[in-house]
Each structure stands twice: as structure tokens, then as C-alpha cells.
Amino acid sequence: MQPVQFSDRTGWIVNASRIASSRAGGLAIALAVSVGFVCLVASTERAGPPPGDLWAAQTGPNVVTLAWRRPEKVSEFRIYEVEGGAFKRISALRPSADSFTHTVRPPWGDRQYAIDAVFEDGSVSEKALFNQVRVEEAKPGPVFAPASVTAEQTGPGEVTVRWSEAPGATAFLIGRSVGTGGLQMVCRLCPTTGRFVDRTPQPGVKHTYFVTTLAAGGASRRTMSNVLVPTSAPAAARAEPASAPPSVDAGFIAEPRPGGCLSLGGEGNLLVRLADGSVQFYERVRSTKNGLEVLDAPAFRRVDGITDAVAVAESGTHRLVLRRNGTILAWGENSHGQVGSERAIGRKFGRAFPADVETPLPVDGISRAVDIAVGASHSVALLADGTIRTWGLGDRGVPGDDRMEVKSDRISPSVVTGIRNAADIVAGGEHTFALLLDRTVRGWGSGWSAPGYYSLLGVGRDGDSAVPLPVVGLAEVRQVATSALSAIVLLADGTVKAWGTPTGFYQPERTNWMNSKLPVTVPGIRDAVAVSPHLILLADGTVREITAPEKPVPGVAGVVAVASSGVNRYALLEDGRLLGWGHPRFWPKGVVTVLDAGRQTAQACAMR
Description:
Methylamine Dehydrogenase, Chain H; 7-stranded antiparallel β-sheet; elongated; Immunoglobulin-like; 4-stranded antiparallel β-sheet; 1 helix; mainly beta
């Protein structure tokens, strides 16, 4: 049994150790002594479950709303405010209640609430914690409604409602209109996952759903979904394989992009997309519950179940595959929700607990994607309409959604602010860059700088940014590449510029000439056709180290695509061979062939 809880007559609940107990008829009676008085407490071992599906959010100036799912046979709900590990009861509610509104006053900051249920037989459930709420002073200005809402039948008796991210949202209110009836509330306080499943639709009748943003400033206007007529039979989408995403645009086709067949993570893990749409995975380091595990005998292996890949993205600990139908698969480490699948999220006490994923899962809420990228703990997708979605790490402006004050991870995709004309995306560490159609570049996320390292965003100063900022002095950019500490761009005239701090196994005698907070020209390069974070590919098929651009890498020629990280280098040749080399500790034999990817793969992936 747990330590007995008893009241000290102030309204606060404190813990005490059980000092005596006996059992009579299966009921445990605990005797607790505190501050000169004695009370008897009945054990709750046989009580019913606590309320479920808990969510708490600031829904207006000075207002926090709590919502939950009611268990059966309850006579009363009790609401507590938690402070310093103690529970202070602030309200008792009738058994029909499923929400509670609490008026709060300064000082602002984090608030924690809990709930338990008193059942008809007198037993009491365990206390369940709501998610922590950051209460802020409401700022003047509009509350933004979701830009789009879609409703889709995803199974018999099941309609899934999805909506786009709304800046500043703390929760969402979901309503529906059935037939000629009025508006019904089906979720009074939905989490910010961008997804709600209605399990009580009426077959054969028109359904329209409405989503309202709730925020510190209040509520937004409603955004209406498409009209849907649910059927009693399984929807056609359910006939797809289990690995298929919940929403597919049947008429959309994503095409391979130059260089999109190779992606190298910071830990040396490599993904290769072959011409037949399959994916090969070279795993050198594996993320486990005990940390990173270095494999003794790494080798390429085919990723099961993927036959329609058009692009790959590897961070070293998690990875994405863009499919031909414009949807995305993800797997690997998921500590910040970077896998982007609700199936990989556990929920307890109203909180989300992302779990690592061993097999590819579809990313929720993404369709019509044309490109993908990954940072250390976040993921990025470019859609066909030129907008960008991010999910995963929520700190330091990484999501790019103009919510620097919101530090929580984005476990479902959010919309990057102010970009509607992106042509390409790259990510590294805790930042992202977008190449726009006008051939300029914008970056957001961590602008981290420390002694010996230089700002990453290319804006001439340190500091993080939650909105995309234009990289200073760039025009006519053809390609962007980035690592955790530096960035490099290829210009239309074949020259190359870079900024940040170059790192790797090879450093020239002159110390880091490239260190800069603004783009600077890499000397001696006039005929480049492609770049990666540490390699430059020239028109003649040779490659140069960015820290030693004056001479070609020996033993490497006929190259059509490159990938590089701090201590690893890869080059795909015209004949389909994939060469690898790098730090002597990991590559004692120098340049070696690691995979025969085939000529067709080389032709489809060629960057020159």
C-alpha cells in the first residue's frame, strides 16, 4: 500500500507513513497520527479508476479550464491544486461534470492540478494529474483560428477530424452539426495534437465539424470542415496496408530530387534510397533505453515494407522516408515526438510520453509532401503548396511557428510562419533552412554560439529565432546544406559561400578561415555543382573538402552525389558504387566501396 494521506485541517493534503494496520473482511484500515490528532483512513485498493483523458489549458485571461472523461458510478469529483507536492482541494463537483473552470490570479507561471473520483460505494480513486499549465498574462491581439479543418471516415463508426496548427493555441474546442440539427459539442477541451476521433457519428447523415482555437487571449472564430456522410461499412482508406497513413491524396505523386537518395546522420548512420524505391539502412549507432550503442559489425540492411521511397532523411537517431504518394514514414528515437505519430505517444496523468519506434510509422497530418529533412530532435516536411511543417523539439524556436514562449515539444506537425514559397529544405542540430523560389534563404531555430563557435542562422548576430529570418547577403542560391554547426550554399555561378564553424576530422593548417556569423566565399571554387555540409562536388566529378578546397580528395572521381558528416564521407559514383571514407579511426583502409547501389540509382540521384 501507498503511504496514508490525511488532512492537517488546513485544506492541504499531506503524506504520512502508515504506523499500524489491520484487515477485517478484506478492508484495510490504516491508523495515522499527526500533529496531535488521529484519523482512520480506508484503503482505496478496490476503488474504481480515476477520470481519464485529462487535459488542462489556459482558455482566457485569468482562466484555466480542466476537462476529463467520466468513469461510471461516480457520486462526486474533487479538484485539487498541487503545490510543493501537496494537494489543496479547491472544488467538489456533481457526478455529471466533465469540466471545471478555475479563475487564477498573479503571480503568473506554471500551475498543476489533480482530480479524484468518489464512487457510489464510498471508495475513492487514485488522484490523477493534469498536464502542467503555463499561465500567462493575456496579450492584446487576435486569437488565430485553424486555417483548415478536414473530416474523414477512418473506420466503421469512426470519423477523424484534423486541423492545422494555430499560433498561441493551448487547446481546441470541437463541435459538429448532424443533418439539420444544431451545433453539438463533442470535445470541450481537446489537446493541441491537431487530431480528434469522433466515435459516435450517425451513418447516412451529413456531418460538418467546427474547430475553435482556445488561447490565453480567449477563443477564436470557428473553422468549418468539409461535409462528410459517414457509412456503416469500413471506409476505403482502411483497406490499405497497416503502414499506410490515415490520409492519402490518390492523385498526387512526389518525384525524386537530385541528391535525395543519400542521407547521413551525425552518428554515422546512413540511409540510401535505391532506384526500385527500396531503402537500405547502414546502422553504426543505435539509440537504446540506456543511451547510444555502437554496433560491433555494422552493415547495410533493407528496411522492410518500403517499396515506394522517393527521398530519405537521417539524423543519426531518427529517420524519415518520403513515399511516392506524398506521405511520410518515420522511426527511431522519439524523445521529443520527432517521429510524429500518435501511435508512438503514451498518455498518463494527462501528459504525453513519446516512445521510441523500431519500425516505420506514418507521420500524422502530412500529405502532398515533396521533400523532407531532419535535425537532431526535430523533423521537417515541405509540402507541394510551398508551406513547411515541423514537429519534434519545441525549444529555442526550432518549430518556426512564432511561439518562442512555448517550450513544449510539438508532437504533431505545426506550420512554419511566413513561408508559402519554399523550394527546398535542410535541417541540422536545432535549426532549419528553407530555400525559397526567389532563390534567397531563410533560417530559424537555434542561433547558438559559444567561445570558438559561431552563429548558425547567418544573420550576423547570435540568438535563437522562432520565425524564419533571411540569411544576409545571399541571392541566386541553387542549393543549401547544413550540419549541426555550419551551413553552406551553392550559388548559380558555381561559387560557394559558408558560415558557422566547420568541424570534422580534417582541418587545414590555417585555423578555420570560414568561421563567420555571415556567409563568406569559399576561396578557389568556381565550378561547383552540389554541396553537402563538408564536401563540394565539382563539375568534373571530383570532390573537395570545404576546409581544404584547393585540392581534390584523392582516389575519388566520377562522383554524381555526396553526403558528409563530422567524421564520415560518402560519394555515389556514375557506375552505382557508393564509396566511403573519413576519420582514420573509423576508416583505417581509406576510401572503400561500401555498397553497389546500381547505375539506375546513380542516374536518379545525380546532382550533376
